[in-house]
Amino acid sequence: QGVVLMDPSQDPDDILRANRSREKTFVFDKVFDHTATQEEVYVSTTKSLIEGVISGYNATIFAYGPTGTGKTFTMLGTDSEPGIYIRALDDLFKGLGATAEEVDYTVSMSYLEIYNEVIRDLLNPSSGFLDLREDSRGSIQIAGITEVSTTNAWEIMQLLLKGNKQRTQEPTAANGASSRSHAVLQVTVTQRGRRKETGEAVLIGKLFMVDLAGSERAAQTQNRGKRMKEGAHINRSLLALGNCINALSEKGGSRAQFVNFRDSKLTRLLKDSLGGNSRTVMIAHISPASSSFEESRMTLIYAYRAKNIKTQV
């Protein structure tokens, strides 16, 4: 369960820093090494959340880390090794199929990206930039987003692969096909009981799966001009997410602390899924390369703070 991070730059003969520890240890719920399979990662992180979604709780899965460490692979995967998106939906349909005799259910999903603080629909990219609106019950809606209803995981895989090709990807010095936006797959499960005497009880569970943009530092990517601005926007939404996580975690002092969800589109969209009726998993990705030591350290610290979130379900 522990990650030990060694500082590659420390010189063993450096007298001034001789008694500072050369390694940092972080403890998480589960740590995977380079041999872990997609199946293992999915079973240990996400599988248990699916029953919750069927019971009407929200769930959120984040893939976080610097560029090139495999976030998109973890979430989307390839045809031969599908990622969390497909495995989760597959299990969701199986779980719903088991209750189909008593319950009518609909599953709708949308796939969008947040790039430079604007929202684009990845299933219908020609629709331009979309607005976030709040309805009377206080839940956040995206005006004009394409919602797809299907109960076939394979169809969804094709849609997601197509949507992923629409994502804003640009080469940086750190990664040739770096995703420059946060991709959010939002799955809403609505269930109505078939028996008359139960009244019109409706269970709504939302599953958010978020493939965040790379959290690397600007110096590493050698970005200038447009790329640099883009990086600033990416870091802005990651910082807003970090601030919300800090305010929600126990270390933040009083429980009545204000959580600023409105700092970025990403946190506003995920408002229901960070606090309140939800379970959250963050899958942090780090690179074993010594050149990305700083990035790995920042990623682990960020994920470590997320571990302290306590929500009142």
Describe the 3D structure:
By secondary structure, the chain is α+β, with helices and mostly antiparallel strands. The protein has one domain: Kinesin motor domain (Kinesin). The protein is built from ten helices and 14 strands. The protein has helices at 38-45, 47-54, 71-75, 84-98, 153-165, 218-221, 225-248, 265-269, 271-274, 293-306, and strands spanning 2-6, 23-27, 58-64, 103-115, 118-121, 129-130, 132-134, 140-142, 148-149, 169-170, 178-179, 182-193, 202-211, 278-284. The strands form four sheets. Strands 3, 4, 5, 6, 9, 12, 13 and 14 form an eight-stranded mixed sheet that branches. Strands 1-2 form a two-stranded antiparallel sheet. Helix 2 (47-54) packs across helix 4 (84-98). It starts with a strand and ends in a 7-residue tail after the last helix. The mean pLDDT is 79. It is found in: Cytoplasm, Cytoskeleton. ATP binds at residues 65-72.
What attributes does this structure have?
single chain; 313 residues; two-stranded antiparallel ribbon
- For this structure, the CATH topology is Kinesin
CATH class descriptor name: Alpha Beta
CATH homologous superfamily designation: Kinesin motor domain
Task: Find the count of extended strands (DSSP E, 2+ residues).
Answer: 14
Order of helices and strands: EEHHEHHEEEEEEHEEEEHHHHEH
Low-confidence stretches: none
From the spread of the alpha carbons, the general shape counts as globular
Number of helices: 10
Distance between the termini: 26 Å
Major sheet summary line: 8 strands, mixed
Helix/strand-derived class?
alpha+beta
- The number of domains is 1
Rg over CA atoms, rounded to whole Å, is 20 Å
Fraction in helix: 25-40%
CATH architecture: 3-Layer(aba) Sandwich
Mean pLDDT: 79
Beta percentage is 15-25%
